[in-house]
Amino acid sequence: MTVQDVFVIRGRGAVATGQVEYGELRVGEEVTINDGRRVKVDAIEAFRKKLDKAVPGETVGLLFKKLSKDDIAAGDVLTTSGYFLA
């Protein structure tokens, strides 16, 4: 997915928001940021509801405990297992 916005929840981590266009993503899977750094997805939420997975068409927030706001930015592309999510 292409990251639309990034914000930080103090004590939890960085959240990247965007719409999933292709593929499927589950909590605990790793994503690659711009074909570089790999990081685990710690939570997925949509409209304040926790999800186990994100599927095409959903606008979601992905929580990354190990990232700061400087590690990811709007416009970055997230992929998983070689597939483009957005």
TrEMBL record:
InterPro entries: EF-Tu_GTPase (IPR050055), EFTu-like_2 (IPR004161), Transl_B-barrel_sf (IPR009000)
Gene Ontology CC: cytosol
Molecular function via GO: GTP binding; translation elongation factor activity
Domain Translation elongation factor EFTu-like intervals: 13-79
Protein name: Translation elongation factor EFTu-like domain-containing protein
Organism: Mycobacterium bourgelatii
